[in-house]
DNA sequence: CACGCGTGGGG
DNA sequence: TCCCCAAGCGT
């Protein structure tokens, strides 16, 4: 028997009051949530797990305790602190957004969904979440959790993303004017801990009594999704090249696109095949030793990198590259895929044998 | 609307 | 091992 929407909302809020997760960005005291903290956490949580976010969130808040501090930070420092969290456009948008809040709004976050939506890196979800959680606006928050909860609750047959408007309507009908932020977090907590994708714990769910999918035993059927495409594989090569004094050859990737603005070691383009060792040695003007391969899976392709370690012949940086000391390397924004390369190269004997002039020692074991 | 865009954990 | 996925956004 379907309960009334009001009864469903009440049951969900009562469950949340007992079982809400204690998360660092959730206000505990009487003072309302800090909009800056809510915004920072929401951006970090975009397509990212709570467990992965916690450490980054703490470090950001310690380094930059308010939006003005973040806005004043150097862009490279923000990218460096974001390194490892992924989706690096978020870091650029985060920094742009902080500066926009300072310049356009006097350093205070706007309090309405519409005004938030106009800021960089804030889309439909984040605008509604910040408005509801930080400012109490009656906004409808729809994320992946809400989609799963609502499509199961109402047995929505339309596949996502086409079902988005319907899901938004169904959700809006449940939002309580008095506690919009708690309702949003309650639905997300339910999706994260009870109404999970693979094995939902319906016996513990406060909405089980009115859930259409549960009544039919078809929870796992929702949300319906369109078939996904296979992920192709690309190949490339990357070399950790040292100068006589130990400095390492790096370069900064283009500002936008994959790993935009992040630091990488000397490497080839990525395509159907990787270049051979001789080509890498010539391009880097270094004696190279092959040290193995690194595998990494991005969202839309898998990558196999042949990894080399070597010693520069002349100490001249190829076009677009620069030398950094090991100490300075620690301050570079290096994404995890290239940290894997560094670790693979560091695991082998660093000394490259002396070779006669004109010879290139390549691809040796 | 479809695609580009990271990473790590769990079943 | 492999596949799925997690509090999406910009173009």
UniProtKB/TrEMBL annotation:
Substrates-to-products reaction catalysed: Hydrolyzes free adenine bases from 7,8-dihydro-8-oxoguanine:adenine mismatched double-stranded DNA, leaving an apurinic site
Q: What range(s) does the HhH-GPD domain occupy?
A: 44-193
List, in alphabetical order, the GO biological process terms annotated in this UniProt record: base-excision repair; mismatch repair
Q: How is the cofactor bound?
A: Binds 1 [4Fe-4S] cluster.
Q: Which residues cross the membrane?
A: none
GO MF assignments: 4 iron, 4 sulfur cluster binding; 8-oxo-7,8-dihydroguanine DNA N-glycosylase activity; adenine/guanine mispair binding; metal ion binding; oxidized purine DNA binding; purine-specific mismatch base pair DNA N-glycosylase activity
Question: What name is this protein filed under?
Answer: Adenine DNA glycosylase
| Organism for this UniProt entry | Lichenibacterium ramalinae
- Upper taxonomic classification of the species? Bacteria, Pseudomonadati, Pseudomonadota, Alphaproteobacteria, Hyphomicrobiales
């Amino acid at each position: 028997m379907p309960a009334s929407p009001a009864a469903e909302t009440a049951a969900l809020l009562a469950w949340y009051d007992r079982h809400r997760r204690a998360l660092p960005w959730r206000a505990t005291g009487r003072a309302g949530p800090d909009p800056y903290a809510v915004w920072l956490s929401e951006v970090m949580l975009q397509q990212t797990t709570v467990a992965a976010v916690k450490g980054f969130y703490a470090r950001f808040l310690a380094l930059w305790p308010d939006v003005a501090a973040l806005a004043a930070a150097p862009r490279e420092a923000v990218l460096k602190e974001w390194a490892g969290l992924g989706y690096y456009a978020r870091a650029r948008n985060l920094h742009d957004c902080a500066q926009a809040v300072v310049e356009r709004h006097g350093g205070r976050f706007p309090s309405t969904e519409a005004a938030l939506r106009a800021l960089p890196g804030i889309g439909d979800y984040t605008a509604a979440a910040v408005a509801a959680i930080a400012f109490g606006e009656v906004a409808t928050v729809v994320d992946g959790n809400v989609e799963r909860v609502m499509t199961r609750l109402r047995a929505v047959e339309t596949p996502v993303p086409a079902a988005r408007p319907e899901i938004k309507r169904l959700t809006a009908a449940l939002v309580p004017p008095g506690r919009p932020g708690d309702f949003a977090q309650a639905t997300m907590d339910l999706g994260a801990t009870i109404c999970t994708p693979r094995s939902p714990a319906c016996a513990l769910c406060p909405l089980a009594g009115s859930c259409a999918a549960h009544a039919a035993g078809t929870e796992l059927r929702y949300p319906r999704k369109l078939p996904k495409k296979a992920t192709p594989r690309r190949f490339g090569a990357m070399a950790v090249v040292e100068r006589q004094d130990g400095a390492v050859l790096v370069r900064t990737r283009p500002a936008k696109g994959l790993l935009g603005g992040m630091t990488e070691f000397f490497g080839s383009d990525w395509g159907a095949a990787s270049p051979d060792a001789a080509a890498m040695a010539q391009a880097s003007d270094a004696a190279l030793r092959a040290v193995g391969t690194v595998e990494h899976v991005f969202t839309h392709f898998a990558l196999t990198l042949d990894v080399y370690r070597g010693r520069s012949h002349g100490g001249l940086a190829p076009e677009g590259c620069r030398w950094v000391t090991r100490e300075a390397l620690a301050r570079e924004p290096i994404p995890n895929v290239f940290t894997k390369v560094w670790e693979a190269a560091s695991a082998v004997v660093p000394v490259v044998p002396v070779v006669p002039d004109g010879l290139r020692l390549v691809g040796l074991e």
